[in-house]
Structures are given as C-alpha cells and as structure tokens.
Amino acid sequence: MSQSVNNYILENKNKINQTFRNKFHLMPTLGWMNDPNGFVYYKGEYHLFYQYYPYDSVWGPMHWGHAKSKDLIHWEDLPVALEPGEAYDADGCFSGSAIVVEDKLYLLYTGHYERSGERRETQCLAVSTDGIVFEKYEKNPVISEKQLQKYGDISDFRDPKVFYREGVFYTVVATKSETNLGRILLFESKDLFDWQFKSILLEGKKHQGIMWECPDLFELDNKDVLIMSPIEMERQGYAYYNINSTVVFVGKIDWSEGKFSVENYHEIDTGLDFYAPQTCQDDEGNRVMVAWMQMWHRTIWSHELSHGWSGSMTFPRELSIVENKLIQKPYKTFYDNLNTIFKDNDIRLTEENIYQNKSLDNFNYLKLQLKTDSAEKVYIELFGNKVYIKYDVNRNLLTLTRKNDKYHIIGEEAEELNSRTMKVFPKNDVLLIECIIDTSCIELFVNHSDTMTATYYDNNRLNQVDIHVTSGSSLLESIEISELKL
User: Fold this and answer.
1) pLDDT band for position 485 (cuts 50, 70, 90)
2) pLDDT, tens digit, 9 for 90 and up, residues 216-238
3) What string of DSSP letters covers 39-79?
4) Among positive and negative, which fits the CA dihedral 9, 13, 16, 17?
5) Inter-residue contact 332 to 446 (CB < 8 Å)
6) Is 358 left (phi over 0), alpha (psi -120 to 50) or beta?
7) In a 3-state reduction of DSSP, which class is residue 363?
C-alpha cells in the first residue's frame, strides 16, 4: 500500500461540506462510497470495509475504505486497506469479504481488469496481522478461469463472500449464465489459498434479474439464508421497484451436492436506498447486516452540490428467521444509547384533532403504536412534510415518500420513483412503526418485521412530527421521541 492515497485523504478531509453528513451512520471521510465489504468482528471490534474512491464524489477505480467500531454507532476511520495496482486488480479492488484465521485477518476480494476491450474479474487474497495493514498474496488470483471453467462469465465474476463450515472454507461468488440469468457459484478450499469449484449453488429465473451481485450465505435459526442484489429484477406486486434490488432466499442446502433448495424468497428492504447488504456475526453469535444506503443511478445531492463526498451505510440490523421470512430490527446498541425526550399515550386522532409536536430539538428515533380503528388513512408527517408516511387502513398499505423534499432525487426507473409502498399486517389492529432518523436518511421498521430505507436532503428542516387521519378516527396508543447519545 502506497502512502499517497492516505496522505491525500489527510490533506483534503477538512475541505468537504458537512451540511448533509450523518451523525451515526458510517460515511466516507471524503469521496465516494458504495458496497460494504469485509464486515467482520476481529479482536474485540467490528471492522467494516467499503468500496471507495477517495479522489472524487463519483464512482472511480475502487479502493477498500476501512473503519472500525466497538458499538456500531461510533466509527473510527482507518487507512485505506486496498488500492488497485497489480496486473490482476489494475482497474479496481472490487467487493469481497473478510475472515479471521489464527488471529490473522484475511480479505477475499475481486480484482478487476478492464482495458483494450478485455474485461476480467478474478478473486484475490490479502492478509493482515494487525487488522490495518494488508499485504496482497503473491500468487494472486486464487480463483480465476482455472476454477471458473465453463460455469460463468469471467467478465462478470465477482463479490466473494467467504465462510468456514465443518473444516472447510467456502465462498459464494456472483456470475451469470450464458442466457444472462443470475447465478451463484460455490467454491471450496482447505486453506484459503487453493480453491476448487464445488457447484452452481443457485440460478435465477427470467424474472429474477440479469445479474446477481454481492451474495452472502449463512445459517440462521436452522435455515440456510442467501442474500443478494439482483440487477433489473421484474416487479412483483409492490416489490422490486428499484432498478437494482435486494432479495433473500430462505431454504436448505444439500452440502454434499452444493445445491440450494428454496422455500421462500422476498425483497429485503422495500425502500428507495438499500443495496449490497453484507452480514457478520457479533461476539454473541447474532447475525448483523449492513447495506449501502444509496441506489445506483440516482441523484446524490452531496455530489451535485460539490460537497466532496457521496454515500452512507445503513445502521446495522440484527437478523432472525420467522416462518421462512427474514426479520430485521435495529442492532441492540441503538436502544442502549437512546435518551427519551418526549412520551405520550392514548391520543384520539380525528380529522379535527390533529397531533402536532413542534417543540423538538434534533431527534433520532420515533416510535408509534397506532390502533387504526375506523380511520381510512393515517398520515405521519416529518420535518414539515418533507418526508411522510401514509397508511391506507382498508388496503393495509404503508407508503414512505420523499417527493416533497427540497432537493428532488431522480433515478433511471421508467417512471419517477420517490415513494415506495408495502403490504403490512397489524397485530390486533395495532401498527408499530419505528423510525431511525439521521441528518439525511430515514430507516423505517414496521411490526418488528419489515423495513423501508430512504435518503433525503434538506438543510433547513423543521424538527417536528404531525399526525392526522382522514375520515373516522384512530387511537395513538403511544408515541416516543428520542435522541441518540453520541
């Protein structure tokens, strides 16, 4: 690793504009951030790497940025872990993962080469004894055409996620079939250095996208779980409206054959800005997930306004499987660090009786328990209606929208997309809504189950909450507003 990139960061990090910077979501020091990489618990701390281009706030030749945290709230920036420069990664150190072996931290990543009409992606290894300085393996790549054989396309062969199971190292890697269908391959090794092809773990159907990126495979609650990010997955009901989506497959693997038998699949997050999730296990064995809180080909106003940075990660989420569905909730350290600034209960909402709370400083958490009763629609407006949540009681549809945001966000979807909707199912006619709120993002958790994530940009927001209904009435059983102790 040369020192030039780290010197550049030190010399320029104070030049960025702080206006839209989040307070407790990981962001790049400066420059561009996308996919989380190498999420791992190592020597008592969480390490999170990410796709990084420090020299501009747009995508460029990928480096690996690096940060660590003891609580997944407070992050310490570390030197860049990987930068392109070898023959096999001359045009980028693309996404990958990390694993701890005998107190050493290994990174398995994609080396990207793209010149003179040739594009080649291979899997490469780097190692560190201190978790900060990494050396690339002298015999890289460790997985290339030799192991790939006829089972994928070397020009689209990336994002290895490595894990250890019953004495064997495995990695899943994304590629695509001859007919442009998503395909996940499984490779195995005894030592991380010598790899063999194991199987085609799973292959997509025509409606499931043209390429599956960023796979992650793990066992959770006696189920095998495969998460990934499909490109151009077809819409199904209210799901998969973004050009690039995320999906979870739940089922069982026949490890002798290396085949995944799918029992259920669904969109992971039905919001506007959630991509390339990756997981790790915490020190107690809980499965924790983080994702890039952005979407490809969307307006990023911190770049458009020349603020010098782009991108952020979601707040980490603890995962479980219930009835073959992936359940997400904010990681426990979030709740541990909340300071309640307002609580109330049993407020009857009618068309005439509108709930309004204006006397708020910056807040990071909003929790509502809503008994829908006879109301047709319930509106929860945040920041002077810049962002709002609408619940259609009769149709059980919850919508998150940012269309009133001052800085309008445009994507490449055929129709403008600044709202997403999902089907929800209240328990005993009560809807539980939790919102994690930072400077330029909102993460919605509904009924301890479903999530919606979105970015927004407003440098003059009103820190207030307004709740009203149309027709009939609804009982706001409880409302809690809190700040995160930072």
Assistant:
1) very high
2) 999 999 999 999 999 999 999 99
3) EEEETTEEEEEEEEETTSSS--SBEEEEEEESSSSS-EEEE
4) positive
5) no
6) alpha
7) coil
C-alpha pair distances (Å), 454 with each of 137, 402, 438, 451 = 39, 8, 11, 10
Asked if residue 311 lies in contact with residue 32, where contact means CB atoms within 8 angstroms, the answer is: yes
**What is the spatial distance between Cα 62 and Cα 59, in angstroms, rounded to a whole number?**
8
Among candidate residues 92, 38, 13, the one with its CA nearest the CA of residue 60: 92
361 residue type, one letter: D
Catalogue the active-site residues. 35
Q: pLDDT averaged over the chain?
A: 95
Structure token digits, residue 29: 């020091």
Say how far apart CA 95 and CA 172 lie, in whole Å. Answer: 12
What is the pLDDT at residue 1?
61
Torsion over CA: 57, 58, 64, 68 (sign): positive
- Model pLDDT for residues 358-377, shown as the tens digit of each residue: 767 789 999 999 998 889 99
| Tokens encoding 469 | 């209904």
Place of tokens 């990023």: 300
- Report the chain's C-alpha Rg in angstroms: 22
Predicted local distance difference test score (pLDDT) of residue 359: 65
CA dihedral over 209, 247, 265, 100, signed as positive or negative: positive
For 149, other C-beta atoms within 10 Å of its C-beta total: 9
